Amino acid sequence: MRQGRADEYAEFAAARAGHLYRSACLLTAGDTHLAEDLVQETFGRLYVRWGRVSRVGNPAGYAQTVLTRAFLAHQRRRSSRERATDVFPDLPGAADGDASLRLTLMAALARLPAKDRAVVVLRYWEDRSVEETADVLNVSSAAVRTRCVRALGRLRELLGEDLAAYSRP
Amino acid sequence: MPGSQHHDPFEERLAAALRDAGDGFDADPAALTAGGRVRGRRAQLLRRTAVLGGAAGIALVGVGGALLVPGGDSLGPDRSSAAAKPAASASATAAASFSGDDLLRTLKGLLPDGEFSQEAANGTRGDTPPFAHVVYDDGEGAAAIGVGFGRLEAGSREVREVTTCPDRALVEYDDCTSGRLPDGSLLMLYRGYEYPDRREDTKRWSAELVTADGQHVSLSEWNAAAEKGAPVSRAEPPLSLEELKRIVTAGAWRRVVDAMPEDRRPPATGAPDAPPPGAAGESIGAPLAGLLPKGLTVVDRGGQETEYAYLVIDDGKGRSLVQVNVQPDMSDVADQLYGEAETLPDGTLVATREGPGEKGGEGVLMWTADTMRPDGFRVVISAFNTGAQHQDATRATPALTVDRLKEIALSGKWEGLR
């Protein structure tokens, strides 16, 4: 990579690392090791094709797409080996302190199918539109809406309607 | 910006909760970007190295992708200095590391007598996968020979790509055979050309071995002193197919692969993979529940991701986990999955297995019926004598017999999930 481009890449990576990592943590429902791995994988791919990526105009969006797809590919590989269910963490009750609230939210996310979780993260963390989410996941807008409704229903069931305990006032 | 497009108050609150939760994860940007750079550079280097040549070289990009950190070379003792203890980062099966010289010595020891020059190699501790390369002359002319290593996920698409003969419509070659060895390894022996368009007559012959554990050894030879850019030095590469097979299957190479740094997960290469279509876990659970014999209680159910669902059932004798995978378009791996399968009159393949569980629970049995319709539509059902594979057995046998599993897997009710 030429020096100018390498600098540009380094600047981009440093600026986006924190956000991508937080996205990855939500996608993996709090598996921080897998999240780190996915972010490094994402940066690795961006590094190789940075010349093209930097010209598309929205490298941040591209990075998020790469991350989401890397996550789904990872999940799919796991499922294709007849993996038995992981033991789901119990949902701890909403207690005091941000840490346990986060654990509760992560445990609820963990109970969503991977694609539904990706929809929730893209829609409500990334604030992407239904159409943008559909593009990232390579599915129709209708499929995104269906997954979204289903995921919201499940989260309501698991976390309660008001959710007030899970965010700061 | 955040939350502005959501009208339902629950959506607003969810967005706020995700922001709070997400902000609680502290990243180490320097480590993440450094790790990404290492992976990116490794991919580039591998493309340039191209020691393995052709399709194999491409398939190996990204292989062995451990979580490498800069300076990782200093990790792990030398084999010579630590013969008795495992390398620091290695799993139980991993051996100590091998240096580039170790690999060269092994390769030269396996080759028939001759002259060697232009030796180059990477050991198992570098941040690129190991390889060894020599120019070998048996008296008939100098020939490049290279061996490279990787670790693939057994049964994966990469394994099929590496060991399947190329389509003659796409690549011109002289002959190619691919098959399974008695130990379960897949071996492809290939005689073709360095340049598929034959713009130069450099021949490349190769052997691609992938063991049942996913250890990949790639051995190539040319009838020139370099794979590209050197004049043809002899009519044919020096090693016969039998010799290629003998060398590629040498046990020493498998230990080299074992000594490569562990990856937490198999590598993914190339462009962002579009998620393939697949039936959602929840839609799979419903037919499964409907196909169970009467008198069973479903005590838990779930489907964490696409194509996969599970139920925990109880017939009065204790909990029994039943899981199902429904996967379209799996015909390309049929020969690997159904080696000894029964073929039904309509062409459906059925394999059954009774074995131990895979997740470490004490005394856990896993009974499986694995079926594939002629068009590649696969339904696999397993039942366990425990409610969770990680937990010890809670009953003598799974709540469903293998025959019953077979019957369920072959039901027409799965057709709706195509």
From TrEMBL, chain A:
One of its GO terms (biological process) is DNA-templated transcription initiation. Residues 24-79 form the RNA polymerase sigma-70 region domain. The keyword Transcription applies. It comes from the Bacteria. InterPro entries: RNA_pol_sigma-70-like, RNA_pol_sigma-70_dom, RNA_pol_sigma-E_actinobac, RNA_pol_sigma70_r2, RNA_pol_sigma70_r4_t2, RNA_pol_sigma_r2, RNA_pol_sigma_r3/r4-like, WH-like_DNA-bd_sf. Keywords: DNA-binding, Sigma factor, Transcription, Transcription regulation. The keyword Disulfide bond does not apply. GO terms for molecular function: DNA binding; sigma factor activity. Residues 104-155 form the RNA polymerase sigma factor 70 region 4 type domain. It holds the Pfam family Sigma70_r2. PANTHER family: ECF RNA POLYMERASE SIGMA FACTOR SIGM (PTHR43133:SF50), RNA POLYMERASE ECF-TYPE SIGMA FACTO (PTHR43133). Belongs to the sigma-70 factor family. ECF subfamily. This is RNA polymerase sigma24 factor. It comes from Streptomyces toyocaensis.
TrEMBL record, chain B:
It comes from the Bacteria. Residues 259-286 are annotated as: Disordered. Keywords: Membrane, Transmembrane, Transmembrane helix. The keyword Transmembrane helix applies. The chain crosses the membrane at residues 49-69. This is LigA protein. It comes from Streptomyces toyocaensis. The lineage of its organism: Bacteria, Bacillati, Actinomycetota, Actinomycetes, Kitasatosporales.
